[in-house]
Amino acid sequence: MTKPSSHGHTQSGSEITDEVVEKLAAEAETGYDVDTLIARRGKRGRPTLGASPASVESVRLDSELRQELLKRAESEGTTTSELIREALRQYLHAA
Questions:
Q1: Which helix (H) or strand (E) holds 6?
Q2: How far apart are CA 95 and CA 93, in angstroms?
Q3: Rounded to whole angstroms, what are the CA distances from 89 to 82, 83, 84, 86, 94?
Q4: Are 70 and 83 in contact (CB under 8 A)?
């Protein structure tokens, strides 16, 4: 008896065997219902930061400031983005 060949693994870790490939090919040949596919897929993108979509703002940092930012974010167990948002909130509320 021959072991079914493997074609790798899915993102969830399931093995992709010849049997899985044949099943997917048969499904593709019969055609897809677009509404079902859209409903089946998960939400994409980053989680929202509030009630409305967030904007992305670019800021230039010199290498020393960037290194300080990275060290601080690591020491506080947070991201550089969250650290910048918090610093900006504090600055704007103090003004």
A1: strand 6-9
A2: 6
A3: 10, 10, 9, 5, 9
A4: no
What's the token pair of residue 88? 């900006």
Contacts of 21 (CB under 8 A, 6+ apart): 7
- Please count the residues of the chain: 95
Record the pTM.
Answer: 0.50
Give the distance from CA 24 to its chain's centroid: 25
Local structure of 39: helix, strand or coil: helix
The residue type found at 65 is: L
| Phi–psi pair at 43, nearest 5 degrees | -70, 145
Using alpha carbons, select from 87, 27, 85, 77 the residue that is nearest to residue 56.
85
pLDDT tens track, the chain, 95 positions: 566 588 888 888 888 898 888 988 888 888 888 888 777 776 666 677 777 778 889 999 999 999 999 999 999 999 999 999 999 999 999 86
